[in-house]
Every structure is written in structure tokens, then in C-alpha cells.
Amino acid sequence: MTWDRLPAFALTLAVTLLLAAVVCFVIASVVRGALPQDGRTGDVLRRERRLSVAAVLASCVLIAVLIAVLITPDSPGRHSESAPTPSPAAQPDSRTPIWSDEFDGPAGSPADPANWTYETGGGGWGNDELQYYTAGAENGALDGAGNLVITLRKVDSATTALQCWYGPCQYTSARLITGQKQEFQYGRVETRVMVPGGGGVWPAVWLLGSDIRDVGWPQSGEIDLMEFVGRMPNEIFGTLHGPGYSGGQSYSGAHDLGAPVEGSWHEFAVEWAPDQITWEVDGVAYHRATPSDVAPHEWVFDHRFFLLANMAIGGNFGGQVAEDVAMPRSMVIDYIRVYSDPG
User: Fold this and answer.
1) Residues labelled catalytic
2) pLDDT < 50 regions, the chain
3) What are the φ and ψ backbone dihedral angles of 46, each rounded to 5 degrees?
4) Quick one: 218 and 105 in the same domain?
5) C-alpha to C-alpha distance for 17 and 257, rounded to whole angstroms
6) Same domain assignment for residues 59 and 147
């Protein structure tokens, strides 16, 4: 029983004891008068009557206590099925919120410029990706219902003025970063996302080391909070990239949800502490990394990082674009929240 339930239990016990006392007094009086009047002395009779009355009163008090225990919700010795204790991973509210973006705002407006910068370009982004990232609302904007929507669109390569690494661009999308605006070191980073399906699509929410401009990638470190590729429709990925373990040699974990990921809300999180990072999806921890996992290479995750959210298509991980992929395709982000490290 929690301490806030004690007053209710005490009140129930007091009322029950009062009623029991009245009933017991009546029963005791009847018992006292019903004792046989034989040849025993008065002292013996009085002693037997007192013992009988005491036994009746004690029994009534015990019964009253048991009744109070049984009828008081969440009383001592009674388990409350309606309020199970959540696991520590399900209690981010017990921590100090550091930052969040709930993506509130009018439909069609850009993400909060105090938090986000739109990166632009179609140079492949190190992965031979096919999209050109724009700063336009048609690719990245709030929907007016508390979500950020990043939309991948097909463009006519015969008429577009946009140039990609392979020639006139075929797709546009959006890539948003919090670099030099909101940066973090350690804690719980969580997001609620609905991803689209389709072979070739590659939505992600991730983090890059803030020193990337000084040391480059992968020395900066990269923490992929959530990646999804349409060619593996039931799986999500959590990955570390660092010096000696990047790209195809990254330290990665996958989780099979047993059903298509697309079209449903899922909560993704990383628990990031000194010398350990754990990935979760819908409250289930599925991947963990420590310095020993990447040894003898350097662990580069004990400094500040910034957030990114984007949707790519094709490329080294996205793979071949399926012919039947209907456009546009949208990733919807309900929120991104950062909580303090409990350590």
C-alpha cells in the first residue's frame, strides 16, 4: 500500500471496528446471560463469563480488521492490478526534461527555426542517395496537428532545374538538423514516429557529433536512433558509426517487429550514458553498445551531439527503388524529447 492510501484504510478500519463493537457487545451480553447457573461458585462463574466475553470481543476485532483489509483498495497485503509498477525504461517523466520539440504550429509552417536548420543539396550525402534536400514546405513542414511531416516527392527530371550527383534530380525531400542550436551530451533521447513503406525509402532520426566540422566523419561519431528501409519492412535499426566501424562495418543492431513497421506509430529511444548506449523500440531494449564492443577502435561518444531527421531514397543502405513505390511518401514525427542522464 502506498502512503497516500493510509488515511482511507484507517477510516475504513475505524468505522468497521465501531460497528463490530456494537455487534460484539450485544453478542457478549447474550453469551454472558446464557452461561449455565449450576453449583459453581460466584467467583468461578464471573471468571468464566469474563473469559467468554473477552473471546467474543477478540474474535470480533480480528474479523473487523480482516474486513477492513479486504474492502480498502490498495490496502496492506492486497496487490493492485490496475497500477503495475512500470519498468525504469518506461519512466522518462522521473527525469529532468532537457529539451523537446512537440511540433506545434500552423499547418504548412516550417519547423521552429530556434531548433532546426534545413540543409539543402543533392550531392548524395556520402551514400549515393537519390534525393535533393530542399527547404520548402512541400518537403518539410508542420501539419497543424502537432506533427512534423517530411515528404519525399518525385520530380520530373526532364524539366527540373535541380541538379543531383547523377544529373537532373528525380526526387526531393527534407533534412533538418539542430546543429549549433540544440546540442546534447548523455541522457534519454526519444521520438514517436510513423514511417512510410516502399522499396528504396530510408527515413531516419539520428545524432552526429558536434565536432564534425573540426574532425570530420566518422571521427565525430554518429548515433542512429532509428533507421528504417522499405526493403526490410518488419525491421528497424539502431547503429553506431565511429573511426574503424562506419558504413558497412558499423556496430548495428536490428529488431524485427513481426509485422510491417510502416503506417503505425512507434516510439524509438536511446539511453545514452558514459560508456554505454542502449536502443529501444516501444519500450523494448534490443541493442546495446559499450567501448569493448568497438575495441580496439576509439569510443567517440563522450561529447556533445546534435539531432537530425531526414528521409532519403536509394543509396547504399536504402537500396534499389521499387517500381511500384507510390509517391509522395511521408515520415510523420509526433515529438522528439531529451531527458537528463539519471547517472
Assistant:
1) 222, 227
2) 1-13, 15-16, 24, 26, 28, 30-31, 35, 37-41, 44-45, 51, 56, 64-66, 68-90
3) -65, -40
4) yes
5) 55
6) no
> What are the phi and psi torsion angles at 151 (to 5°)?
-120, 130
Strands 175-177 and 305-313: antiparallel
Domain count within the chain: 2
Q: At what angle do helices 6-34 and 42-71 cross, to 10 degrees?
A: 150
Q: Is 321 helix (H, G, I), strand (E, B) or coil?
A: coil
The C-alpha torsion from 325 through 252 and 311 to 210, rounded to 10°, is -170
Q: Provide the percentage of residues in the chain whose pLDDT is more than 70.
A: 73
Residue 323 CB: number of other CB atoms within 10 A?
Answer: 7
User: Has residue 256 been placed in a domain?
Assistant: yes
Is residue 111 a contact partner of residue 176, using CB atoms and an 8 Å limit?
A: yes
Rg (CA), the chain: 33
| Domain annotation covers residue 76 | no
Closest-CA residue to 291 (of 253, 248, 249, 245) = 245
Tell me which residue range forms the domain holding 256.
88-339
The number of beta carbons lying within 10 Å of the beta carbon of residue 301 is: 24
How long is the chain? Answer: 343
The 3-state DSSP class for residue 24 equals: helix
CATH code for the domain of 280 = 2.60.120.200
Q: Are residues 132 and 188 in the same domain?
A: yes
Grouping H, G, I as helix, E, B as strand and the rest as coil, residue 304 is coil
Question: What is the SS3 assignment for 297?
Answer: coil
Nearest to 193 by CA among 307, 274, 89, 292: 307
